Amino acid sequence: MALLEVNNLKTHFFTRSGVVKSVDGISFAIEKGEILGIVGESGAGKSITGFSILKLIDEPGKIVEGEILFDGVDLVQQDEKHMQRIRGNKISMIFQDPQTSLNPVITIGEQMMEAILYHHENVSRKEAFASCVEILKLVGLPAAHERMKSYPHQLSGGMKQRVVIAMALLNNPKLLIADEPTTALDVTIQAQILYLMKKLSRDFGSSLILITHDIAVVSQLCDKIAVMYAGRIVEYGSKEEIIFDPKHPYTKGLIECLPKLNDDKERLYQIPGIMPTLLNLPQGCYFKDRCELADSECDVYPEEQQLGERRVFCHKVK
Protein backbone atom coordinates (compact mmCIF):
# COMPACT_ATOMS: atom_id res chain seq x y z
CA MET A 1 0.00 0.00 0.00
CA ALA A 2 1.29 3.46 -0.93
CA LEU A 3 2.11 5.86 1.93
CA LEU A 4 0.07 8.61 0.25
CA GLU A 5 -2.56 8.13 -2.44
CA VAL A 6 -4.39 11.12 -3.91
CA ASN A 7 -7.47 10.26 -5.98
CA ASN A 8 -9.37 12.78 -8.13
CA LEU A 9 -8.57 15.68 -5.79
CA LYS A 10 -10.42 18.93 -6.52
CA THR A 11 -9.73 22.13 -4.57
CA HIS A 12 -11.76 25.11 -5.75
CA PHE A 13 -11.93 28.73 -4.61
CA PHE A 14 -15.39 30.32 -4.68
CA THR A 15 -14.78 34.01 -5.42
CA ARG A 16 -17.08 36.85 -6.46
CA SER A 17 -15.69 36.60 -9.98
CA GLY A 18 -16.42 32.88 -10.24
CA VAL A 19 -15.01 29.47 -9.30
CA VAL A 20 -11.20 29.17 -9.49
CA LYS A 21 -10.39 25.51 -10.10
CA SER A 22 -6.88 25.57 -8.61
CA VAL A 23 -6.70 21.78 -8.39
CA ASP A 24 -9.14 20.01 -10.64
CA GLY A 25 -9.13 16.23 -10.49
CA ILE A 26 -5.52 15.12 -9.93
CA SER A 27 -4.35 11.66 -8.90
CA PHE A 28 -0.92 10.41 -7.83
CA ALA A 29 0.72 8.16 -5.27
CA ILE A 30 3.97 8.12 -3.32
CA GLU A 31 5.57 5.05 -1.77
CA LYS A 32 7.52 4.93 1.49
CA GLY A 33 10.97 6.48 1.03
CA GLU A 34 10.15 7.79 -2.45
CA ILE A 35 10.72 11.33 -3.80
CA LEU A 36 8.01 12.79 -6.04
CA GLY A 37 8.49 16.05 -7.94
CA ILE A 38 5.47 18.21 -8.83
CA VAL A 39 6.59 20.62 -11.53
CA GLY A 40 4.94 23.36 -13.56
CA GLU A 41 4.69 27.12 -14.07
CA SER A 42 3.49 29.55 -11.41
CA GLY A 43 -0.27 29.29 -10.96
CA ALA A 44 -0.47 25.66 -12.07
CA GLY A 45 -1.85 24.52 -8.70
CA LYS A 46 1.30 22.94 -7.26
CA SER A 47 1.34 24.72 -3.89
CA ILE A 48 -2.43 24.33 -3.44
CA THR A 49 -1.90 20.58 -3.90
CA GLY A 50 0.56 20.60 -0.98
CA PHE A 51 -1.73 22.73 1.20
CA SER A 52 -4.67 20.45 0.37
CA ILE A 53 -2.81 17.37 1.63
CA LEU A 54 -2.44 19.08 5.02
CA LYS A 55 -5.93 20.63 4.82
CA LEU A 56 -4.49 24.14 5.07
CA ILE A 57 -7.09 25.61 2.71
CA ASP A 58 -8.84 28.71 4.02
CA GLU A 59 -12.09 30.27 2.85
CA PRO A 60 -13.13 30.84 0.10
CA GLY A 61 -11.22 27.67 -0.81
CA LYS A 62 -12.59 24.19 -0.29
CA ILE A 63 -11.74 20.59 -1.12
CA VAL A 64 -14.87 19.73 -3.12
CA GLU A 65 -14.08 16.19 -4.21
CA GLY A 66 -11.56 13.37 -3.98
CA GLU A 67 -9.57 11.33 -1.48
CA ILE A 68 -6.23 11.92 0.25
CA LEU A 69 -5.33 8.52 1.68
CA PHE A 70 -2.43 8.70 4.14
CA ASP A 71 -1.53 5.35 5.71
CA GLY A 72 -4.95 4.17 4.52
CA VAL A 73 -6.88 6.99 6.28
CA ASP A 74 -8.74 9.58 4.18
CA LEU A 75 -7.53 12.98 5.45
CA VAL A 76 -10.38 14.77 3.66
CA GLN A 77 -12.82 13.22 6.14
CA GLN A 78 -10.78 14.09 9.26
CA ASP A 79 -11.60 17.00 11.58
CA GLU A 80 -9.22 19.82 12.55
CA LYS A 81 -8.25 18.16 15.85
CA HIS A 82 -7.05 15.05 14.02
CA MET A 83 -5.17 17.16 11.44
CA GLN A 84 -3.33 19.05 14.20
CA ARG A 85 -1.93 15.73 15.40
CA ILE A 86 -0.83 14.93 11.83
CA ARG A 87 0.77 18.27 10.91
CA GLY A 88 4.38 18.64 11.99
CA ASN A 89 4.31 15.09 13.33
CA LYS A 90 3.49 12.56 10.61
CA ILE A 91 3.46 15.06 7.73
CA SER A 92 5.69 18.16 7.75
CA MET A 93 5.86 21.04 5.29
CA ILE A 94 8.84 23.19 4.34
CA PHE A 95 7.48 26.48 3.07
CA GLN A 96 8.76 28.64 0.24
CA ASP A 97 10.18 31.50 2.30
CA PRO A 98 11.89 30.62 5.61
CA GLN A 99 11.48 34.24 6.72
CA THR A 100 7.70 33.80 6.97
CA SER A 101 7.98 30.35 8.61
CA LEU A 102 9.81 31.61 11.69
CA ASN A 103 8.48 33.92 14.41
CA PRO A 104 10.81 36.97 14.45
CA VAL A 105 10.43 37.63 18.21
CA ILE A 106 11.05 34.10 19.52
CA THR A 107 14.43 32.38 19.58
CA ILE A 108 15.17 29.48 17.23
CA GLY A 109 15.47 27.14 20.21
CA GLU A 110 12.06 28.01 21.67
CA GLN A 111 10.35 27.58 18.30
CA MET A 112 11.98 24.21 17.69
CA MET A 113 11.31 22.88 21.18
CA GLU A 114 7.65 23.87 20.87
CA ALA A 115 7.34 21.59 17.83
CA ILE A 116 8.50 18.63 19.95
CA LEU A 117 6.67 19.45 23.18
CA TYR A 118 3.33 20.00 21.40
CA HIS A 119 3.29 16.43 20.06
CA HIS A 120 5.14 14.67 22.93
CA GLU A 121 3.86 15.61 26.38
CA ASN A 122 6.17 13.13 28.13
CA VAL A 123 9.37 14.76 26.78
CA SER A 124 11.15 17.21 29.11
CA ARG A 125 12.48 20.59 27.98
CA LYS A 126 16.04 19.34 28.54
CA GLU A 127 15.45 16.34 26.26
CA ALA A 128 13.75 18.56 23.67
CA PHE A 129 16.71 21.00 23.76
CA ALA A 130 19.19 18.16 23.20
CA SER A 131 17.14 16.77 20.29
CA CYS A 132 17.01 20.21 18.64
CA VAL A 133 20.77 20.73 18.94
CA GLU A 134 21.38 17.27 17.48
CA ILE A 135 19.18 17.85 14.45
CA LEU A 136 20.66 21.33 13.84
CA LYS A 137 24.04 19.60 13.63
CA LEU A 138 22.56 17.07 11.19
CA VAL A 139 21.40 19.82 8.82
CA GLY A 140 24.87 21.38 8.91
CA LEU A 141 24.19 24.50 10.97
CA PRO A 142 27.49 25.69 12.52
CA ALA A 143 27.65 26.28 16.29
CA ALA A 144 24.28 24.57 16.74
CA HIS A 145 24.21 24.94 20.54
CA GLU A 146 24.74 28.72 20.35
CA ARG A 147 22.27 29.10 17.47
CA MET A 148 19.47 27.87 19.74
CA LYS A 149 19.64 31.30 21.42
CA SER A 150 19.58 33.23 18.11
CA TYR A 151 16.62 35.11 16.65
CA PRO A 152 15.71 34.58 12.96
CA HIS A 153 17.07 38.00 11.88
CA GLN A 154 20.51 36.97 13.15
CA LEU A 155 20.74 34.14 10.60
CA SER A 156 21.44 34.23 6.85
CA GLY A 157 18.85 32.95 4.35
CA GLY A 158 20.63 29.60 4.00
CA MET A 159 20.86 29.18 7.77
CA LYS A 160 17.16 29.98 8.19
CA GLN A 161 16.27 27.40 5.55
CA ARG A 162 18.37 24.78 7.39
CA VAL A 163 16.50 25.62 10.61
CA VAL A 164 13.15 25.22 8.84
CA ILE A 165 14.25 21.82 7.44
CA ALA A 166 15.43 20.80 10.92
CA MET A 167 12.04 21.77 12.39
CA ALA A 168 10.25 19.74 9.72
CA LEU A 169 12.32 16.67 10.62
CA LEU A 170 12.12 17.00 14.43
CA ASN A 171 9.35 14.44 14.90
CA ASN A 172 10.67 12.05 12.23
CA PRO A 173 7.69 12.49 9.86
CA LYS A 174 6.70 9.86 7.33
CA LEU A 175 6.11 12.51 4.65
CA LEU A 176 7.83 15.83 3.91
CA ILE A 177 6.28 18.39 1.55
CA ALA A 178 8.77 21.00 0.31
CA ASP A 179 7.18 23.97 -1.46
CA GLU A 180 9.81 25.73 -3.62
CA PRO A 181 12.30 25.37 -0.73
CA THR A 182 15.21 27.16 -2.44
CA THR A 183 13.47 30.12 -4.15
CA ALA A 184 14.92 32.79 -1.83
CA LEU A 185 18.48 31.41 -1.90
CA ASP A 186 21.46 31.94 -4.18
CA VAL A 187 22.51 29.17 -6.56
CA THR A 188 25.32 27.60 -4.53
CA ILE A 189 23.19 27.50 -1.35
CA GLN A 190 20.28 26.08 -3.41
CA ALA A 191 22.43 23.11 -4.44
CA GLN A 192 23.52 22.49 -0.84
CA ILE A 193 19.94 22.62 0.49
CA LEU A 194 18.60 20.29 -2.22
CA TYR A 195 21.38 17.77 -1.62
CA LEU A 196 20.74 18.01 2.13
CA MET A 197 17.00 17.37 1.69
CA LYS A 198 17.61 14.31 -0.46
CA LYS A 199 20.19 12.93 1.99
CA LEU A 200 17.99 13.53 5.04
CA SER A 201 14.96 12.03 3.30
CA ARG A 202 16.99 8.87 2.67
CA ASP A 203 18.54 8.84 6.18
CA PHE A 204 15.22 9.34 7.97
CA GLY A 205 13.29 7.05 5.60
CA SER A 206 10.80 9.86 4.91
CA SER A 207 8.97 10.25 1.63
CA LEU A 208 9.36 13.66 0.00
CA ILE A 209 7.11 15.71 -2.27
CA LEU A 210 9.16 18.45 -3.93
CA ILE A 211 7.09 21.28 -5.42
CA THR A 212 9.03 23.39 -7.92
CA HIS A 213 8.89 25.27 -11.25
CA ASP A 214 12.39 24.01 -12.13
CA ILE A 215 12.41 20.75 -14.06
CA ALA A 216 16.22 20.61 -13.78
CA VAL A 217 15.84 20.25 -9.99
CA VAL A 218 13.37 17.36 -10.20
CA SER A 219 15.56 15.63 -12.79
CA GLN A 220 18.35 15.53 -10.18
CA LEU A 221 16.39 14.63 -7.06
CA CYS A 222 13.19 12.77 -7.79
CA ASP A 223 12.12 9.19 -8.43
CA LYS A 224 8.77 10.16 -9.99
CA ILE A 225 7.51 13.36 -11.63
CA ALA A 226 4.02 14.85 -11.97
CA VAL A 227 3.81 17.70 -14.51
CA MET A 228 1.00 20.14 -13.65
CA TYR A 229 -0.68 22.64 -15.95
CA ALA A 230 -3.71 24.82 -15.14
CA GLY A 231 -4.83 22.74 -12.16
CA ARG A 232 -4.39 19.31 -13.74
CA ILE A 233 -1.62 16.75 -14.08
CA VAL A 234 -0.81 16.38 -17.79
CA GLU A 235 1.96 13.78 -17.48
CA TYR A 236 2.97 11.47 -14.65
CA GLY A 237 5.62 8.78 -14.49
CA SER A 238 9.16 7.85 -13.52
CA LYS A 239 11.94 10.42 -13.76
CA GLU A 240 13.71 8.45 -16.51
CA GLU A 241 10.58 8.25 -18.67
CA ILE A 242 9.66 11.90 -18.36
CA ILE A 243 13.12 13.49 -18.61
CA PHE A 244 14.54 11.29 -21.39
CA ASP A 245 11.34 10.53 -23.32
CA PRO A 246 8.70 13.22 -22.62
CA LYS A 247 5.35 12.65 -24.34
CA HIS A 248 3.20 15.68 -23.56
CA PRO A 249 4.02 18.85 -25.58
CA TYR A 250 4.08 20.91 -22.35
CA THR A 251 6.64 18.57 -20.74
CA LYS A 252 8.74 18.75 -23.89
CA GLY A 253 8.53 22.56 -23.74
CA LEU A 254 9.70 22.67 -20.12
CA ILE A 255 12.71 20.51 -20.97
CA GLU A 256 13.48 22.56 -24.10
CA CYS A 257 13.61 25.69 -21.90
CA LEU A 258 16.68 24.33 -20.10
CA PRO A 259 19.95 25.97 -21.26
CA LYS A 260 22.29 23.78 -23.33
CA LEU A 261 25.86 23.78 -22.02
CA ASN A 262 27.38 22.87 -25.39
CA ASP A 263 25.69 25.61 -27.43
CA ASP A 264 26.40 29.22 -26.51
CA LYS A 265 24.95 30.70 -29.71
CA GLU A 266 21.44 29.28 -29.65
CA ARG A 267 18.80 31.44 -27.93
CA LEU A 268 16.91 29.93 -25.01
CA TYR A 269 13.63 28.29 -26.02
CA GLN A 270 10.45 29.83 -24.63
CA ILE A 271 7.01 28.20 -24.61
CA PRO A 272 4.80 30.65 -26.57
CA GLY A 273 1.92 32.41 -24.81
CA ILE A 274 0.92 32.22 -21.15
CA MET A 275 -1.09 29.80 -19.05
CA PRO A 276 -4.83 30.56 -19.17
CA THR A 277 -6.49 32.09 -16.13
CA LEU A 278 -8.13 29.45 -13.94
CA LEU A 279 -11.31 31.56 -13.96
CA ASN A 280 -11.66 31.28 -17.72
CA LEU A 281 -10.25 27.99 -18.96
CA PRO A 282 -10.52 27.18 -22.68
CA GLN A 283 -12.85 24.48 -23.97
CA GLY A 284 -10.97 21.21 -24.45
CA CYS A 285 -7.25 20.85 -23.79
CA TYR A 286 -6.02 23.73 -21.62
CA PHE A 287 -2.65 23.78 -23.42
CA LYS A 288 -4.03 23.93 -26.97
CA ASP A 289 -3.54 27.70 -27.48
CA ARG A 290 0.21 27.29 -26.83
CA CYS A 291 0.69 23.95 -28.59
CA GLU A 292 2.15 23.57 -32.11
CA LEU A 293 0.33 20.24 -32.57
CA ALA A 294 -3.16 21.51 -31.65
CA ASP A 295 -6.06 20.95 -34.06
CA SER A 296 -9.85 20.49 -33.84
CA GLU A 297 -9.40 17.21 -31.98
CA CYS A 298 -8.05 19.25 -29.04
CA ASP A 299 -11.42 21.01 -28.57
CA VAL A 300 -12.31 18.05 -26.31
CA TYR A 301 -10.21 17.50 -23.16
CA PRO A 302 -8.08 14.36 -23.76
CA GLU A 303 -8.72 11.13 -21.92
CA GLU A 304 -5.95 9.59 -19.85
CA GLN A 305 -3.56 7.44 -21.88
CA GLN A 306 -1.67 4.72 -20.04
CA LEU A 307 1.79 3.99 -21.44
CA GLY A 308 3.13 1.29 -19.15
CA GLU A 309 3.54 2.99 -15.74
CA ARG A 310 3.18 6.45 -17.27
CA ARG A 311 -0.03 8.50 -17.62
CA VAL A 312 -0.39 11.21 -20.29
CA PHE A 313 -3.33 13.47 -21.15
CA CYS A 314 -2.85 14.34 -24.83
CA HIS A 315 -4.61 13.44 -28.10
CA LYS A 316 -1.32 13.46 -30.00
CA VAL A 317 0.34 10.68 -27.98
CA LYS A 318 -0.10 7.42 -29.82
Describe this structure in words.
Strand 7, helix 8 and strand 8 form a beta-alpha-beta unit. The radius of gyration is 21 Å and the shape is globular. It has an eight-stranded mixed sheet with strand order 6-7-8-3-9-10-12-11, with helices on both faces. It contains eleven helices and twelve strands. The relative contact order is 0.15. 32% of the residues lie in helices and 24% in strands. With 318 residues, it is of the alpha/beta class.
Which features would summarize this protein structure in a list?
318 residues, 4-stranded antiparallel beta sheet
What's the layout of helices and strands?
Elements lengths: L3 E12 L2 E13 L4 E5 L6 H8 L7 E10 L2 E2 L5 H7 L4 E4 L3 H4 L6 H12 L5 H14 L5 H4 L9 H13 L5 E5 L7 H18 L2 E6 L2 H7 L2 E6 L2 E7 H6 L4 H8 L48 E3 L2 E3 L6
Parallel strand pairs: 3-8, 3-9, 6-7, 7-8
Antiparallel strand pairs: 1-2, 1-4, 4-5, 9-10, 10-12, 11-12
Helix pairs in contact: 4-5, 5-7, 7-8
Strands side by side in the biggest sheet: 6-7-8-3-9-10-12-11
How much of the sequence lies in strands comes to 15-25%
Helix % is 25-40%
Helix count, per DSSP?
Answer: 11
What coarse outline follows from CA principal-axis ratios? globular
Mean pLDDT: 92
Number of distinct beta strands: 12
The separation of the N and C termini measures 31 Å
How does the major sheet shape up?
Answer: 8 strands, mixed
Contiguous runs where pLDDT drops below 50 for at least 5 residues: none
Order of helices and strands: EEEHEEHEHHHHHEHEHEEHHEE
Question: What's the gyration radius in Å?
Answer: 21 Å
- Coarse structural class: alpha/beta
